[in-house]
## 1
Amino acid sequence: MLTLKEQIAGYEQEINTFSPSGAADLEAFRIKFLGAKGIVKMIFGEMKNVPVDQKKEAGQLLNAFKVLAESRFEQFKSLEDSVDKKESREDLSLPGTPLPMGTRHPLRVTEQKIVSIFEKLGFSVATGPEIEDDWHNFTSLNMPENHTARDMQDTFYVQTNPDWVLRTHTSSVQARILETQQLPVRVICPGRVYRNETISARAHCFFHQCEGLYVDKNVSFADLKQTLYYFVTEMFGEGTKVRFRPSYFPFTEPSAEMDISCTVCGGKGCNLCKHTGWVEILGCGMVHPNMLRNFGIDPEVYSGFAFGMGVERITQIRYQVNDLRLYSQNDVRFLRQFQGI
Ligand code: PHE
């Protein structure tokens, strides 16, 4: 009869030369050697027949045999597992698939720039509804019914309710702020506005505005000018000249329009400034006492300034976009030009 030692040596050879050709082979190996009725168990059972003085040596032999069978199994098992997993066949050194970079819309970029400049001056952002009632869009802004100033803006009316309009300016948000907030207020109101204009390179039925409002005690026209000077320097750079021209808005008195020196030709004359050297960028003025009164504010105690600019206009000046329609045509060739700005 073979001794235990000889038996083990025979199995060890079998184990060392074992090379499975698949998962089923490996499982057969496991059952044969490591299973509940496997060879390792069986040989351990032989221990009881080993004479006492040889037990220690036999025990070491058996343990080494068990470890060999187990480690051989584990070795093939981990190989088998990685073959099962698909990613192991992928070449991890391949460069990744490039993801095309998205582009922020130039109007949004400009809007955020405008807002961030005024935020530095302590203005906070306010928004409001695009479908507005007559009071917030017109009447409270010193434009009662039949006021001729309403004709300055061709208005879209909501058919089912003649009291509702698509807001023609974000001054409606300023009205809502005066209605609900404690003084002093200092807000910048970005948003989309609508006017019934025939769409062309120079006009559109919707566009975007950023309007500002500051109401407190002792606010003067000098404060308005200083605020706008700061804005122009931050937006268009040091050395940009500014001029104010008297104008008319029903909700401000006095009112002005503000021009900057042409950023394209530096004042020499070009298409952007229509050879005048100046481009108009916003309307502004001191809040009309009637408007303050409409919100229960005493114009003897409080005063304020307001201004409003078109985001498309500022974007046109910054990037020389000469056709308003480009902003809403979703042409990726146009949008991609603004990648990374
Ligand atoms: N609301 C005016 C417009 O849409 C702009 C403006 C705002 C003018 C505030 C003066 C003061 O044209």
Note: Residues 169, 171, 211, 249, 252, 283-285, 306-308 surround phenylalanine (CB under 6 Å).
## 2
Amino acid sequence: MNRKIILAGAQLGPVQRSDSRRHVVERLISLVEDAAEKGARWVVFPELSLTTFFPRYWLDDDAEIDRFFETEMPSPTTSALFKRARELEVGFYLGYAELVQEAGHKQRFNTAILVDPMGRQIGKYRKVHLPGHLDYLPTAPFQHLEKRYFDVGDLGFPVWNTVDAKIGMCICNDRRWPETFRVMGLQGVEIVMLGYNTPSYNIYHEEQPHLRMFHNRLSVQAAAYQNACWIIAVAKAGCEDAHALIGGSCIVAPTGEIAAQAMTEKDELIVFEADLELSSYIRNTVFDFARHRRPEHYGLIVERRGAGALLGKLES
Ligand code: ING
């Protein structure tokens, strides 16, 4: 018996700092219409889809920072995307910057939501692994200030039992941490959706540019195989105000093989008819967690944050 479902990744080309959200939403709608035409049930958009990757900038003023964030979702601008996707019966993952004001307390998250083909917002995820740095790096060609602009996600790594499959979400740097996928794997996840904005160049040391794509692929291919799940990983790509972001959006099978990949650094839809049953032989043999895992030997993974320093004991 197979459980075939058509999955899509909607890669975005660059979003310039001066681009309006309305213009970006028009691009997203065009991609979701293309996906529907190709029979897709779910479409994954990138991390921070609605704006340029603003953590590359040092922003001092609170109001200027908040201008990159959404205080409601759907917002008046994004409601057109929600409406069109519902008309087409296509579910989607959308990454955006979320501003939460509760009783005078402000929190900012790097967030993704899951909307099902009936237009119901069924899930939210807030980025846990925030890369980069907190303070201004004067010698860096650009900044990477996610630790300055975002709070650490507070929702964990949930998996939702949707109408089609068990679906989980993560965001960008999360894909480099195997814990991300194993927590979802232990919930029986069948499809992990993730968006990313990955600078083409490393601000910390001289790194060959090809390694950016290699590490991107290595992370998601290993995760898909080791957790017997499909992964849809989607870039915002290209040059945003002269700052390059890698493309390489791909759909990865539970075997770890790349089933579809983007060829450009522009708006580009990738599509694949996935058989969700393909994962069952992997999760019932080599990665049969219940039969093979030995949690009694894994204690350090949750007890320690850094190597050699016990959490809360030796760290300053
Ligand atoms: N971007 C990058 C990412 O994890 C990065 C940051 C690149 C960290 C390369 C480490 C190495 O793909 C975001 N937004 O997390």
Note: DSSP finds nine helices and 16 strands in the chain.
